[in-house]
Design goal:
This protein has a single domain (about 10-60), classed as Rossmann fold. Helix content is about 50%, strand content about 10%. The chain is built from three helices and two strands, in the order H-E-H-E-H. The protein is globular, with a radius of gyration of 12 Å.
Length: about 60
């Protein structure tokens, strides 16, 4: 199991780790990013939106 992402780490390191996990998991992983999150989170998200939009996206995966 991959090590957890820690908020206090460098954001570039977090983005790199998330991209690594996405590459490992392929299509079996979808990242939902709320629009209130930081830009780095948006860059990693497969779907970005408000709670309602993310809920609908999750229901269709």
């Amino acid at each position: 199991m991959p090590s957890p992402i820690r908020v206090e780490e460098n954001e570039a390191e977090n983005i790199a780790r998330i991209q690594e996990i996405k590459a490992e998991r392929g299509d079996s992983l979808i990242i939902l990013a709320h629009h209130y999150q930081r830009l780095g989170v948006h860059q990693c998200g497969d779907v970005v939106g408000d709670s309602y939009h993310l809920c609908k996206a999750a229901a269709h995966t």
